Amino acid sequence: MGDETRGSGMPRSAEDIQQAIARIRGELTRLSGEIERTATEQFEQRKPELRGSMDDLEAAIDSLATRAKSLLGDLKAKLDDAGAEAGERADSAGKGAAADGAGERADSATSETR
Questions:
Q1: Distance of alpha carbon 36 from alpha carbon 14, whole angstroms
Q2: I want to staple 12 with a disulfide (CB 3.0 to 4.6 A). Which of 16, 19, 42, 89 is the partner?
Q3: Does the record carry Coiled coil as a key word (predicted)?
């Protein structure tokens, strides 16, 4: 059966199949080399564009990092200012309470002497 002719509609012989496989391998090897050459050429052509895009990305990241540092610095300054204001209010409240306490003690001492 395997040795039947092609015109009979029967399967090809093993030798015909091996020849077809060899032709396919040869074409795949040729195509693979062509694809590799084409890909290398395209990569070389696109390399400047890729480098430019990477430079743009790096500049954008640097800009964002600078902006983030600035915002963080502003936030730290606001926290420091808020902490200083809270400390001043506490000092003022403490001095006011101390003054009120001294006044009350003086009032009670005056009333005790009367």
A1: 33
A2: 16
A3: yes
The distance from CA 8 to its chain's CA centroid, rounded to whole angstroms, is 65
In the chain, at which residue ranges do the beta strands (DSSP E only) sit?
none
Kindly report, residue by residue over 68-85, the tens digit of the pLDDT: 999 999 999 999 988 788
Measure the CA–CA gap between 69 and 61, rounded to whole angstroms: 12
pLDDT in tens, 6-59: 555 556 688 899 999 999 999 999 999 999 999 999 999 999 999 999 999 999
Identify whether the C-beta of residue 10 lies closer than 8 Å to the C-beta of residue 4.
yes
- Residue 75's alpha-carbon distances to 18, 26, 43, 64, 89, in angstroms, are 76, 68, 46, 16, 21
What are the domain boundaries of the chain? 6-113
From residue 9, alpha-carbon distances to 5, 13, 14, 95 in Å are 8, 12, 15, 112
